[in-house]
Amino acid sequence: MTNHKADHRKKPDHDKPDRNGKKPAPFSPRGFLKALGPGLVTGASDDDPSGIGTYSQAGAQLGYGIGWTMLLTFPLMVAIQEISARVGRVTGRGIAANVCRHYPAWMVNLIVALLFVANTINIGADLAAMGDALKLLIGGPAFLYVLVFGVASTAAQIFLSYSRYSAVLKWLTLSLFTYVAALAVTKVAWGEALRGIAIPHIEFSSTFLTTLVAILGTTISPYLFFWQASQEAEDQRVDVRKKPLAEKHYGAWKEFHRIRADTITGMAFSNLIAISIIITAAATLNATGKTDIETSAQAAEALKPIAGQFAEFIFALGIIGTGLLAIPVLAGSAAYAVGEGRRWPVGLARKPNEAAAFYLVLALSAGIGILVNVTPISPISALYWSAVINGVLAVPVMVLLMIIARRRDVMSKFIITGPLYWLGWLSTAAMAVCVVAMIAGFLI
């Protein structure tokens, strides 16, 4: 009988030739960057225009003292995203596909419906921010830009080949460096900023607690879990050399190392950008008493008289770039969840006629997101309710994910154990506290 526990703990010999007699290639920066994929894109898409608005508001209202939250959320993000990725790679299926095979249909349908609604509302809010940002740069009708961005993002997902589209998403992550550039042209009190990052500062005020909940809800979102798991499964499906690790154990540790490096890089990148935005807002908006920021576009506009036209330009440009990255992830994760839950053929690597229902859901989510901008509904109010739905949805999804990750009938000998497992539960507990705080805020 095979000792599964011993197999699970066995460490790989990186210098040992593979079964074809080839030794692993030595580490190279180019090879490392090429290996990055779902984790990098997931982390970068976390800094969507709505997230940028949240971080700008946090810096404007609370100054440098809120920066430490990025260090707090980093290990929690890494843990839950790595677990999501491992589930996708081991099983060859996304989260919804695994849930629908082991839990009641009503549970899957409820989770998928809430995710679709939250993602669609978020798409609408992100498109509104992108339209406002472009209007700020060149003038003209904001809704026209909303329509162009929405249609272009959807068409790219449907009609571009998967390999090309994956490359486009990777390149779009570079747009986030605009916020590092914005920070570079900002006069920062670095001693105070570094203290804000390194030393936790807690205030028992409604403003502080609401902002803390918003940051946690922004950085740990259900659509990120679904996207990264589904993309790992998708990458496995399109590579003829790969099989789900539950079926083909060979090379598992190499894959887990790749997933960890990819996830850590993506989440570190995400938090670096978030810190840049918070410090920029703290050094400019908070320092001058401008604390009434509600959107990313308002933050960009407010920067002009304080930090100059260049700061406004690159901040607004970053909103557009991150939106072009985030909207496909939001629409795509909704389509994956619905399609997997219904056991339809899914995947961006499939042609439209091979996965018509999947692409229909994707287009529907983006289309409704566009239409949100012609209704009397305020994008800010819509985003607020999207955050509420995401918060309520995140906890049960994370609990299910943690349970699935320990099921041997799902994960074979690759069940999640050790520090990663407990960090995953800590992330789940932090999100639960976030939701309780949010509900308490409604009642007070």
User: What structural category do the secondary elements indicate?
Assistant: mainly alpha
Radius of gyration: 21 Å
What is the CATH topology assignment?
Amino acid/polyamine transporter I
In CATH terms, what is the architecture? Up-down Bundle
**Sheet having the most strands:** none
DSSP helix count? 20
Write the CATH homologous superfamily: Amino acid/polyamine transporter I
Average pLDDT over all residues? 86
Low-confidence stretches: 1-22
In N-to-C order, the SSE pattern is HHHHHHHHHHHHHHHHHHHH
Number of domains: 1
Residues in helices, as a percent range: over 70%
The beta-strand count equals 0
Residues in β-strands, percent: under 5%
Describe the global form. Answer: globular
| End-to-end CA span | 59 Å
Q: Would you state the CATH class?
A: Mainly Alpha
List keywords for this structure.
444 residues, mainly alpha, Amino acid/polyamine transporter I, 20 helices, disordered N terminus
Give a written overview of the molecule.
The structure is a single chain. Helix 7 (105-138) runs parallel beside helix 15, helix 8 packs across helix 16 (309-341) and helix 16 crosses helix 17. Residues 1-22 have low confidence and may be disordered. The protein has one domain (34-443): Up-down Bundle (Amino acid/polyamine transporter I), CATH 1.20.1740. The chain is 74% helix and 0% strand. It is mostly helical and 444 residues long. The N and C termini lie far apart (59 Å).
